[in-house]
Amino acid sequence: MDKSVNLDALDRRIVAELQRDASLSNADLAERVGSTAPSCWRRIRALEEMGVLKGAVRLADAEKLGHAVNILCSVRMKSHTSESVDAFHAFVEAHPQIMECYLMSGEWDYLMRVVASDVADYEHFLMRNLLKHPSVGGASSHFALSVTKFTTVLPVGEAGR
């Protein structure tokens, strides 16, 4: 099911600029996208109502906040009952070091990106939290040596391409 919306060129420029810098003033945004401030304001409100634009955030530097280690952790569930899945989802939401979590196809059930201050910090999370969860049957961890690319900017070309 395609849930995408059709955006015109100006809407796409607005979305692209706001993804790069959500702190732009309305006047600066209008200048960058070649529009007027009132038109930009109306379009931003419409994009918010359509659900295209959601909350504005500031990105923090993980290393400066003591989270220098990125781990990709695959998780296998013991059970796939709705109670087990709900309990696991609650676990994920309750642990802020889990940055992302995806239900997967294939051999593993979930893939998570976890941040930690160091290997010992992750070992503590893995052994005392994740593997002790009653729904979790196993996990496999892969440590990122460096970050080649990290972005939160989605492509907004023609028709979302």
Automatic annotation (TrEMBL):
One Gene Ontology MF term: sequence-specific DNA binding
InterPro entries per UniProt: ArsR-like_HTH, AsnC-type_HTH_dom, Dimeric_a/b-barrel, Tscrpt_reg_AsnC-like, Tscrpt_reg_AsnC/Lrp_C, Tscrpt_reg_HTH_AsnC-type_CS, WH-like_DNA-bd_sf, WH_DNA-bd_sf
Keyword Repressor: no
UniProt entry keywords in alphabetical sequence: DNA-binding, Transcription, Transcription regulation
Single biological process term from Gene Ontology: regulation of DNA-templated transcription
Domain of life, source organism: Bacteria
GO CC terms, sorted: cytosol
This protein's record includes keyword Transcription regulation: yes
SMART domains listed in its UniProt record: HTH_ASNC
Occurrences of domain HTH asnC-type (ranges): 7-68
PROSITE patterns: HTH_ASNC_1, HTH_ASNC_2
Name under which the protein is recorded: Lrp/AsnC family transcriptional regulator
Species, as recorded: Sphingobium yanoikuyae
Phylogenetic classification of the source organism: Bacteria, Pseudomonadati, Pseudomonadota, Alphaproteobacteria, Sphingomonadales
